[in-house]
Amino acid sequence: MVDTTKESEINIAPTTVYEEVIQNLYFLYSSVEYDIPLDRELGLSGTYIDRMIETAEALVVADIYDKTEEYEPRAEIVNISFEADYQMGVLKPIVEVEIKDEYDNEEDTR
Q1: What is the CATH number of domain 2-101?
Q2: pLDDT tens column, 25-58
Q3: Is 50 in a helix, a strand, or coil?
Q4: Which of 25, 48, 49, 52 is at a distance of 20 to 30 A from 35, taking alpha carbons?
């Protein structure tokens, strides 16, 4: 589960593929495109900002699938839900993922 509504500690040396993938996805889903200096396309698009929550959800879902496939192909998305604050206009994804079978047995990422 990748829950962007909660803070997450950064582990410089994850010991399992699962831990590495979850950390990579958390960073991907909680970042906005053009904010990462060496990879401007990393992160979710900001095009849904100032859109109605329902419209933004549809755009974010499409973006999450595209970015996950591009940046973390070891993950397979199972479910996407959102925590929305309608008064503040904040939308945060909660993404359930599984590690693809060919990567599932790897223990050490180093």
Answers
A1: 3.10.450.40
A2: 999 999 999 999 999 999 999 898 888 888 999 9
A3: coil
A4: 52
Instruction: Give the tokens for residue 54.
Output: 């329902």
- The DSSP symbol for 23 reads H
Return the amino acid letter for 28.
L
**Amino acid making up residue 85:** D
Segments making up each domain of the chain, as ranges? 2-101
How does residue 105 score in pLDDT terms, banded at 50, 70 and 90? low
Handedness of CA 40, 62, 69, 100 (dihedral sign): positive
Confidence at residue 37, expressed as pLDDT on a 0 to 100 scale: 93
Q: State the Cα–Cα distance between residues 65 and 76, nearest whole angstrom.
A: 9
Side chain identity at residue 84, one-letter code: A
pTM metric for this prediction: 0.86
* Separation CA 31–CA 26 (nearest Å): 8
